[in-house]
Predict the 3D structure of the following.
Amino acid sequence: MARALRALAWTTGVACVAIGLFHVLGGNASIPGEEDAGATIDSLGRFFGAVFAGYGLAWIWAARQAPIPAAVVRVLAGVFLLGALGRVLSIAVEGWPHGFQTGLMVLELALTPVYFWLAEADEKAVRGPSGVAGLR
């Protein structure tokens, strides 16, 4: 399970950095159906793209730690869940978004429990069955 956590953290980090930079560079063109949304949405999208890239860097940082800190995984997963719940709130207030955005929401809601479930996997692997670090 420790390998699964490390792989998922790396994959999430790299994907978030790539998506974030795509939004920084692409502006409105990177938002499905919003190519002509105007300067305000373009500015907002590019700003949040940079924030999302930073979020991805945090996942990459966590994946590089030995062991991966469970508390960091929980915080990052909590942020991921908050984003997914923001999408749910948007549906309740504004209606259904572009299908791609709906797919992302489903992915975010499905992955969050996996992150929480795996959060301690690497720390447990280092502790081993004895529960003491370094003794396996």
Observations:
- The chain has five helices and no strands.
- The longest helix spans residues 2-26.
- The CA atoms of residues 66 and 122 lie 8 Å apart.
- The chain has a mean pLDDT of 92.
